[in-house]
Amino acid sequence: MARPSPRNRRLSPTAPIKTLADWKRFWDLQETDWQLGQAKFQGGDLLAKPGRTPHLLTSEDFRLRPDSPGYKAGKDGKDLSADVDLVGPGEAYERWTKTPEYQEWLTETGESKQSGR
Q: What is the secondary structure of 69-104 as a DSSP string?
């Protein structure tokens, strides 16, 4: 799964990213565990669903189907996609607030000073 560069750089307008090579060049990535293909999600067509029923969209909709590229293809058999157990409101958010990464994010963003935490 691709991650944006940790460097806080301003992104300027660019030509459309059409290939894997374009993506790697844009993010200055060397080696990654890539699979190229159309992701297939348990929730079906996720671009159409929010327009009709956004309130019904759940994190489970974003899990990869077994016939999708990237399904269980990462380290330790994890999907090459967002870890839906770690995103979104509720339990996932509450779990994240107890991690060192959350504390680091608070420090880096100055959020802890702004919100008085």
A: TTTT-SGGG--SS--GGGSSSTHHHHHHTTSHHHHH
Handedness of CA 21, 26, 28, 33 (dihedral sign): negative
Cα–Cα dist 35/33, whole Å = 7
Amino acid at 61: D
Q: Give me 117's structure tokens.
A: 């935490």
Quote the CA–CA distance of 69 and 13 in Å, as a whole number: 29
Question: What does the alpha-carbon distance between residue 77 and residue 103 come to, in Å, rounded to a whole number?
Answer: 28
Domain boundaries, the chain: 36-115
For every one of its 117 residues, what pLDDT tens digit does the chain have, with 9 covering 90 and above?
445 545 555 666 567 888 888 888 888 887 766 767 888 999 888 877 767 777 777 888 889 999 999 999 888 898 888 888 877 777 888 888 999 999 999 999 988 765 554
Both tokens of 76, joined, read: 């330790």
105: tokens are 């994010």
